Amino acid sequence: MNKADIPYLTATELSERIKDREVSPVEAVEAYLDRIEELNPKLNSYITVCAKEALEEAQKAEEAIIAGRYIGPMHGIPVALKDQLLTRGVLTTAGSNILKDFIPQEDATVVTKLRKAGAILLGKTNLTEFAITTNHHFPHGMMHNPWDLSRYAGSSSGGSASATAAFLCATSLGEDTGGSVRGPAASCGLAGFRPSYGLVSRYGLLGACWSKDVIGPMSRTVADCAMTLQAIAGHDPRDRYTWDMPVPDYTEALNGNIGGLRVGVVTERVHTDDVIPEIRTAVVKAIEVLGELGASIQEISLPMIAQTAAFSLVGELVEAAAIHQQYIKERLDEYQNELRLTMLMASLIPAQTYYKCLQLREVWRNQMLSAFDTVDIMVYPTSPSVAPTVPPPTGLASRADMKENFFARRSFTHPASLAGCPALSVNCGFTDAGLPMGLQIIGRPFEDKTVLKVGHAYEQATEWHKRRPPI
User: Fold this and answer.
1) Tell me: the pLDDT tens digits for 30-65?
2) What is the dihedral of CA 392, 394, 400, 406, to 10 degrees?
3) Residue 408 pLDDT greater than 90, yes or no
4) Pairing assessment for the beta strands 296-300 and 262-266 based on DSSP bridges
5) How far apart are CA 205 and CA 213, in angstroms?
6) What pLDDT score was predicted for residue 278?
7) Taking the model in full, what pTM does it have?
8) Distance separating alpha carbons of residues 280 and 286, to the nearest angstrom
9) Is the pLDDT of residue 137 over 90?
10) Buried b (16+ CB within 10 A) or exposed e, 15-41
11) Is 162 a known active-site residue?
């Protein structure tokens, strides 16, 4: 096939072409590098591009496949990684000037797993500083949205989102604390998956919040998410929070059969003025599609959900300040202004306030998990609004800002994070202005297969994932 068309293949399609020797890994890497050279100056998706190394790895993969040593679905697949993950011999900045010269001597576990699966690292993607806060000043440029360059790609994993949506990689990894995989995925029209807490090792992650950080795939389709997750999931002795349990076949579940599954529509997050009308309409239509596919639809109420972001965010900030304690003491002036102020503020939060947040988290977790006694899946919007224009809003200048920060957008993605549940954002349409919208699908802890199954069934019944951004 024409090399210029290779990036438009899904990762699963590219995998089949590579396996059948219709496309070589070298051709694939070259095609992506061409697009990166052309479009990255507009998007600022990548901080570091590993062109030479990627081509060398592609040559090795090609030789192995020709010799009959095909490893599996990720063999020869060009991937991008959020620059929050350690990569041996490759600059890892976490989006901060504090680490502008940091070159790790080892790989994060997920990177080791991807390499073992045969994936090829194209580069490291842009993010908010240390994945903690919304920036106005990015050392490597603000991440732009390929659907509209005047808009933000979305929270801390925005570089992985914009790179994947603009066909600058086949699939990517982001990190989701309170929604930084799902939010950018919704903003950029992708499938973004937050796995169950403890399913994927975080060893080698420059974390933001140890009790909620999760590494997850950001891909153009749910099948691509499942294929990527398959490569990175599993127990790791170096991360004591990973569960020692068998890793199921996530792609096997993508059969389109969701007949009889009980889908709970969270009324407080669907039927609310917090959601803009176009997103509410799109999500309601998406739920109707699930019903047409055989799922049983019922409304459920989670009265506490609108307040979850308030105690979730406070807890995150305390943990972030604890992680950064040494930098705060010794290198405070090297943070960009927003994060510097955030770290100082977070350092002043009393211990009893953090303890109260932990208590509230447990109350919420019990409420959310109890709801799964009557439903198998919960659904509601990933975000109540579309991607904001750049620069994105930051700071709290008014009571309205306070409400937005603590009770609105964050209360859509934080609930699953607090409960350790798997959660998927899948594209469910576009506004009249051509901006993507996301449906969020949440399941019980370690029922990741069910979440992916529902997302894939919906995706295959619709055409939204086939649209290409105008860039």
Assistant:
1) 999 999 999 999 999 999 999 999 999 999 999 999
2) 110
3) no
4) parallel
5) 9
6) 98
7) 0.96
8) 10
9) no
10) bebbeeeebbbbbbbbbbbebbeebbe
11) no
Q: Does the pLDDT at position 130 exceed 70?
A: yes
How many residues make up the chain in this entry?
Answer: 471
Which residue, among 207, 239, 262, has the nearest Cα to 94 in the 3D structure?
207
Among 24, 45, 82, 449, the active-site one is: 82
Instruction: Place domain 3-466 in its CATH homologous superfamily.
Output: Amidase signature (AS) domain (3.90.1300.10)
d(Cα 202, Cα 198) in Å, to the nearest integer?
Answer: 9
Give the pairing of strands 191-194 and 214-219.
Answer: antiparallel
Which of 156, 187, 196, 201 does the annotation list as catalytic? 156
**Does the structure show a pLDDT above 70 at 402?**
no
Q: Do residues 390 and 142 lie in contact, with contact meaning Cβ atoms separated by under 8 Å?
A: yes
The reported pLDDT for the residue numbered 281 is: 98
Pair of tokens at residue 49: 């591009």
Q: 315 and 358 in contact (C-beta within 8 Å)?
A: yes
Tokens of 124: 């490291």
Active site residue 417: no
Residue 324 is encoded by which pair of tokens? 């950064």
Q: Tell me which of 37-41, 86-90, 295-299, 400-404 is least confident.
A: 400-404
Backbone angles phi, psi at 95, to 5 degrees: 70, 20
The catalytically annotated residue of 180, 312, 383, 385 is 180
Strand partners, 265: 299, 379
Query: Among this protein's residues, is 156 annotated catalytic?
Result: yes
Contact 36, 61 (CB under 8 A): no
List alpha helices for 67-181, DSSP H: 109-116, 158-165
